[in-house]
Write a structure and sequence with these properties.
The chain has 217 residues and is α+β, with helices and mostly antiparallel strands. Helix content is 47%, strand content 28%. Strands 1, 2, 3, 4, 5 and 6 form a six-stranded antiparallel beta sheet that branches. Strands 7-8-10-9 form a four-stranded antiparallel beta sheet. The longest helix is centred in the middle third of the chain and has 25 residues. The chain is elongated and about 55 Å long. It starts with a helix and ends in a 5-residue tail after the last helix.
């Protein structure tokens, strides 16, 4: 049995849908690595739940409780039955010391999350909902888009888009539907294909100009 298999056997747990792994504001000393299933990360904003991300296999979360020993900044809820590694501070430290690949992967992931946070802040500066959605699409295409037949594919869900733009999922769906009609994007089961990123970027410039000069005669 490999070291990874032993780790899964020792630390792996199965959680049913609806399980709250931790709540915003709670103290915690564990991080989590998803082996299978789906986890919702959410936050309370003005008394309403705001979805920040939907995480799947291979993703990790909750690491900040180990790194800075501060209360949880969000709530993690199991959406689909999930197999998860639950890692305490001692195990986390040993993993980083004994496996440089894990350390590098974590650093890269944290850097990606910082970039996504920057993009989200920039997106929220737009007043127009269309601009927010198009901005996130173009930034995601630039950072992690993959070339496929018919354009660039971004692995992002409507829930992810809603969380990162501060909009309701139905608003996001309506905007994406309009982009589809304009042949700027195409929705697939596991993501969105952008026909021409440069064309979408020009549309964002147009929306920005329209917002900037709104109200002028």
């Amino acid at each position: 049995m490999s070291g990874e298999d032993l780790l899964v056997q020792k630390l792996g747990k199965v959680f049913p849908p609806g399980t709250v792994l931790f709540k915003e504001g709670e103290t915690g000393r564990e991080m989590y690595v998803i082996q299978g299933g789906k986890i919702k990360i959410s936050k309370q904003v003005r008394g309403e739940e705001q979805i920040l991300a939907m995480l799947g296999a291979g993703e990790f979360f909750g690491e900040m409780a180990i790194l800075n020993n501060k209360p949880r900044s969000a709530t993690a809820t199991v959406v689909e039955e999930s197999k998860i590694l639950v890692i305490d501070p001692k195990t986390f430290e040993l993993m980083l010391k004994n496996n440089i690949e894990i350390a590098i992967r974590m650093i890269k992931k944290l850097a990606q999350r910082l970039q996504e946070a920057d993009d989200q802040i920039e997106s929220l500066l737009y007043k127009d909902a269309n601009s927010r959605v198009v901005h996130i699409l173009t930034r995601t295409a630039d950072s992690s888009g993959k070339q496929v037949q018919g354009g660039i594919k971004v692995n992002i869900t409507m829930e992810d888009m809603a969380g990162r733009t501060g909009l309701e999922p139905e608003q996001v769906k309506e905007i994406i539907s309009r982009l589809e009609k304009a042949k700027l994007a195409r929705v697939e089961p596991d993501g969105i294909v952008i026909a021409e990123v440069n064309r979408l970027r020009k549309y964002l410039e147009y929306l920005s100009m329209k917002e900037q000069f709104e109200g002028l005669e």
